[in-house]
Amino acid sequence: MKEGRMKGRIAFLLLVALVFCAVQALAVPTKVTVRVKARDAKFIGTSFGGILVTIRDADTGELLAKGVTRGSTGDTKVLMKQPFTRFETYARKQDAGYTATLDIDEPTRIEVAAFGPLAQRQGANRVTATQWIVPGKDLTGGNGWVLEMPGFVVDVLAPPAHVKLDAATATVPIRANVTMMCGCPITKGGIWDADRYQVAARIIKDGKQIAELPLNYLKKASQFGADYTVSAGPGVYKAVVYAYDPANGNTGVDVATFIVKKPKKKK
């Protein structure tokens, strides 16, 4: 009796294994290459921490692959100075991207989500797109699947977060580093011209904007700043620093707070 049961179990396990192998045999490895290009700039890659790419079955939500774009930001001359023609390949092998191999057994609608740049998360954005893929038909040709990442990376350097100031009439230096989403620098007269962009700090107190302070280019790549003179008394202030390109609406934001303490009472 026991011997018969054992044989039955072995036969069942063999049947399961055969079914599993048959299902696996139907799955066809299919490659997908994803690249993420900053709006009006270059690819986002290793130098800025890369972009987290997740690939899911768009209909079921099943996670199919996940990884980070690695590689260079691309050829500046090709990406920024030359017009593209139809079917032109402008991405080089070494340029930032992520390639996944998906095992699919039928045409599948996939969703790609891209989040980053990972080295500057306060400036990170997320974009998604969907597309059908067919087993064995790689999505790697030409430039691969290129997604555009909008925004600027704005990094407030001063004031430091939660700094406390003694005088109600204190002058607060506001400084920010502003780059394209690929980390490409903004300079006077450069490819990304500082004169093209609007950089400013919105000063907020008690939930209301009390001032907007334009930040000037400080003659050093990507550096902008100005000094704000506090005139609204003690309290908690928020400096919302933004960069804006009026030509295409591209925008980035970072926030810092500072505290103006009440004057000490004279004895």
In words, what does this structure look like?
The chain is mainly beta. The N and C termini lie far apart (100 Å). The strands form four sheets. A five-stranded mixed β-sheet has the order 9-16-15-11-12, with no helix packed on it. It has two helices and 16 strands. A hairpin with an 8-residue loop joins strand 5 (108-116) and strand 6 (125-133). The protein folds into two domains: 28-149, Immunoglobulin-like; 152-260, Sandwich (Immunoglobulin-like). The chain is elongated, with a radius of gyration of 26 Å. The model has no long low-confidence stretch (mean pLDDT 91).
Question: Topology of this protein?
Answer:
Elements: H1 2-26, E1 28-38, E2 52-57, E3 63-68, H2 76-81, E4 98-104, E5 108-116, E6 125-133, E7 145-149, E8 152-158, E9 163-165, E10 171-180, E11 198-205, E12 208-214, E13 216-217, E14 223-229, E15 235-244, E16 251-260
Parallel strand pairs: 1-7, 9-16
Antiparallel strand pairs: 1-4, 2-3, 2-5, 5-6, 8-10, 10-14, 11-12, 11-15, 13-14, 15-16
Short description:
With 267 residues, the protein is mainly beta. Helices cover 12% and strands 44% of the residues. The protein has a five-stranded mixed β-sheet, with no helix packed on it. The chain has a four-stranded antiparallel β-sheet with strand order 3-2-5-6, with no helix packed on it.
